[in-house]
């Protein structure tokens, strides 16, 4: 007994050491890439989520082999094979686990102090063990509970999908402002101009390629042709409004990026046709959904830091727009005989502050609330919004359940994003007395 107990403790210790080593390695890699210290934890949560989502995707197709031991606990409905039930069930149990995990962190981060900071920033082996334990423990819960959970996830995922489309528009504007700002600064302006032209052409080309493929392979349905035509027409409207300069911050680069987003969403809508054999394009639909999701998550993890820097104080600028000195005293830009010289000043106090854990703020709590919604949403992405079909009469799982709900949600999100972007382009003319900058 003593030997077996020691082996278990040794195994736990080795697992904790491996988890800590992996986290430290990722932090070192982020530091070398110039990532701010306060972003490390958020990137860690996003990467953990990505790994678990990929694991859920694997279980979606092969879960019957892994979780067959839980057959007697899950109690699938009559008329449904346990293999099919286990595969879908594994996805919703992971979604449930991550939702509980991040909601608890959200509540913890609402309380300020050293303990919430330590929990948010560290204790990664304990948090990973908690997620693994909760996941396997969830298999002792009956499927009837997860049928109700599926309806809740469906409603909250619909709200998140609209928010995701708004963030995609924000990504386009932010990317445009960075590159146009680089061009306007006068330093390496030709390089910035070349980049803007090349990527504008690339994004327009990608969007048109996706639309042409929809015309070629999915022209048997009249509504497929109509949706693709309307998508191309919306791009013409975007580009025309941009050229006419209805909004000062609009550009063809922004329009091309939004057109690429909207074209991919239109393809996902067409592929979600319930009368189509969805098993053939299930992975493609999942890839589109997850690509947009994690693009938004990595963007959110970075923009909150940039906004905090803007509030805490960025460098002041001289008349030529060149930074002179930052409030933290980190960088001084001077001119010496026509050449710019960067002088770095770091006090001992600044270096000490860098070693301290970042302070827990309301943004940190809201990040975990966002990740809670992500936990609900990824279950919809992997099952094509088919949560209530756990108790369906299908004998085998074939990739996606055949439902109009996924089709409708994606179509709604596509055109909500389109209308929001059109409003961003025409709002300065419609409401000239308001400042939209």
Lay out the secondary structure.
Blueprint: H1 2-32, H2 40-66, H3 71-74, H4 82-109, H5 114-121, H6 124-137, H7 143-184, H8 189-217, H9 222-243, H10 252-271, H11 282-312, E1 331-336, E2 339-344, H12 348-355, H13 362-383, H14 404-430
Antiparallel strand pairs: 1-2
Rounded to the nearest angstrom, the distance between the terminal CA atoms is: 70 Å
Low-confidence parts: 309-354, 387-399
Share of helix, binned: over 70%
Structural class: mainly alpha
Arrangement of strands in the largest sheet: 1-2
Helical segment tally? 14
Characterise the protein shown here.
The chain is mainly alpha-helical and 437 residues long. It has helices at residues 2-32, 40-66, 71-74, 82-109, 114-121, 124-137, 143-184, 189-217, 222-243, 252-271, 282-312, 348-355, 362-383, 404-430; strands spanning 331-336, 339-344. Strands 1-2 form a two-stranded antiparallel sheet. Strand 1 and strand 2 form a beta hairpin. It is globular and about 65 Å long.
């Amino acid at each position: 007994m003593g030997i077996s107990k020691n082996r278990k403790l040794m195994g736990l210790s080795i697992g904790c050491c491996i988890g800590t080593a992996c986290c430290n390695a990722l932090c070192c890699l982020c530091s070398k890439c110039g990532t701010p210290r306060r972003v490390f934890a958020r990137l860690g949560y996003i990467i953990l989520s990505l790994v678990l989502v990929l694991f859920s995707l694997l279980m979606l197709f092969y879960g019957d082999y892994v979780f067959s031991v839980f057959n007697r606990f899950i109690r699938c409905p009559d008329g449904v094979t346990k293999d099919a039930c286990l595969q879908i069930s594994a996805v919703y149990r992971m979604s449930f686990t991550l939702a509980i995990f991040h909601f608890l962190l959200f509540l913890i981060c609402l309380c300020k102090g050293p303990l919430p900071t330590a929990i948010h920033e560290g204790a990664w082996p304990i948090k990973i063990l908690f997620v693994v334990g909760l996941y396997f423990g969830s298999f002792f819960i009956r499927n009837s509970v997860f049928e109700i959970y599926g309806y809740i996830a469906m409603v909250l995922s619909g709200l998140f999908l609209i928010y995701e489309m708004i963030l995609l528009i924000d990504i386009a504007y932010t990317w445009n402002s960075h590159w146009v700002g680089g061009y306007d600064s006068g330093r390496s302006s030709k390089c910035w101009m070349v980049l803007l032209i090349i990527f504008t052409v690339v994004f327009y080309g990608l969007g048109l390629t996706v639309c042409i493929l929809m015309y070629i392979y999915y022209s048997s349905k009249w509504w497929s042709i109509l949706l693709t035509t309307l998508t191309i027409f919306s791009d013409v409207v975007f580009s025309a409004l941009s050229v006419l300069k209805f909004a000062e911050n609009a550009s063809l680069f922004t329009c091309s990026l939004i057109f690429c987003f909207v074209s991919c969403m239109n393809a996902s809508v067409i592929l979600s046709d319930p009368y189509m054999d969805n098993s053939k394009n299930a992975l493609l639909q999942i890839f589109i959904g997850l690509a947009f999701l994690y693009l938004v998550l990595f963007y959110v993890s970075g923009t909150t830091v940039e906004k905090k820097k803007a509030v805490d104080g960025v460098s002041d600028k001289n008349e030529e727009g060149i930074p002179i000195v930052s409030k933290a005293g980190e960088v001084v830009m001077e001119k010496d005989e026509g050449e710019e010289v960067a002088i770095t000043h770091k006090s001992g106090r600044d270096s000490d502050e860098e070693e301290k854990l970042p302070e827990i703020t309301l943004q940190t709590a809201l990040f975990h609330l966002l990740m809670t919604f992500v936990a609900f949403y990824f279950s919809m992405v992997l099952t094509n919004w088919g949560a209530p079909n756990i108790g369906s009469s299908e004998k085998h799982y074939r990739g996606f359940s055949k439902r109009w709900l996924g089709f409708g949600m994606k179509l709604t999100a596509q055109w909500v994003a389109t209308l929001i972007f059109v409003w961003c382009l025409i709002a300065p003319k419609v409401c000239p007395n308001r400042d939209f900058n």
